[in-house]
Amino acid sequence: MPTDHTLGMEVVAMRVLVTGGAGFIGSRLVARLIAMGHLVTVLDDFSSVRRPLPPDARIIEGDVRDEAAVRLSLHRQEAVFQLAAVVGVPNAMRRQWDSLTTNVLGTMRLLEALPSGVPLILGSSSAIYGKTPQVPVREGDDVLLGNTHIASWTYSYAKLTEELLARASAAERGSEVKIVRLFNVVGPGQTGRYGMVLPRLVGQALAGEPLTVYGDGSQTRTFVDVRDAVAGILTVWDKGAPGDAYNVGGVGEVRILDLARRVIALTGSRSPIHLVPMAAVFGPAFEETPRRAPSIEKVRALGYQPLISLDETIQDIAAWLAQAPSPEP
Ligand SMILES: NC(=O)c1ccc[n+]([C@@H]2O[C@H](COP(=O)([O-])OP(=O)(O)OC[C@H]3O[C@@H](n4cnc5c(N)ncnc54)[C@H](O)[C@@H]3O)[C@@H](O)[C@H]2O)c1
After folding, report:
1. How far apart (Å, rounded) are the C-alpha atoms in residues 199 and 62?
2. Which class is domain 13-185+225-248+294-306?
3. How far apart, in Å, do the first and last CA atoms of the chain sit?
4. Contacts of 5 (CB under 8 A, 6+ apart)
5. Where are the domains of the chain?
6. Between β-strands 120-125 and 177-182, what pairing exists: parallel, antiparallel or unpaired?
7. Binding-site residues, ligand 1, Cβ < 6 A
8. Among candidate residues 192, 314, 214, the one with its CA nearest the CA of residue 274
9. SS3 readout for 208-220
10. pLDDT tens digits, 230-265
11. pTM of the model
12. Which of 18, 41, 48 has the most ligand 1 atoms within 8 A of CB, as the residue to mutate?
């Protein structure tokens, strides 16, 4: 039986489905699962950026909302990771229908067809906490979402509903679901196209363009490297309690203005920082979350430990962008 020494877990080779497996996080998870000896199937509609997948991965090009594609993908699987989504708040604001239905209908399709005893690990988000003033936020804390006429909450409501479906399926149908609430995952391979802050700032710094910071830059986030996030997802799969939710994130709350300064220092850029009003970027139907930082004590108790510093991640993103064929892959 092979052992994954980095996670300290014994690995029994399994058939595993990763929806959204061609995505930023999904493609890293797929590579890691294959390296662990698992047989991996990817269900992805390739609506996002195309990323290289290991040749050993079995690819099903299809929509997670499509019942037939889901049934085909689930055939003989022993574990399922649901990561298919329309991500990024600006992206989800432009594609509200797809954002809602991919998360909600996609997860519903998977839960409906999930064979008994097959665990489903749901990729949820810190977005479900909304604008809660609670810092750091714990899994049991109240959530605080804005009004539905504000389009920037669409993604949060979609992820929240996905969680509710998973919990209802666990309670009433005995589904074995484990929920991973990811907090601001960053790293090489992430596109800045969908509004993710770090690849955009690093790209601007490398191009010698002004770094655009939205609002006054006092809003905070806590970033986690994608390699640590994947380790967190695998830890929850292995050791998480069925029906339970876990925050998976990094440590150290960062103001976005300080993040921009850090990017400039680490890339040796001479770019200035420009503050841009939120409304100029997102329009009036946008509400910002002032602070976001996870309590990761619960997942730490399972053995998770984020290892990669934000500075290391910034340098890795810079190295990746510098060698990428186009400035915005
Ligand atoms: N990146 C983050 O910081 C972050 C934070 C919190 C939660 N998450 C969650 O993690 C998951 C993965 O995010 P990511 O950053 O890798 O995003 P991503 O856009 O890189 O990956 C999502 C993948 O889903 C695919 N997809 C979209 N709609 C689909 C559909 N209808 N059917 C099949 N495939 C579809 C896309 O083609 C893409 O490959 C998502 O559920 C997201 O909500 C991400």
Report:
1. 28
2. alpha beta
3. 38
4. none
5. 13-185+225-248+294-306
6. parallel
7. 20, 22-26, 44-48, 63-65, 83-87, 102, 106, 123, 125, 182, 184-185
8. 214
9. CCCEEEECCCCCE
10. 999 999 999 999 999 999 999 999 999 999 999 999
11. 0.95
12. 48
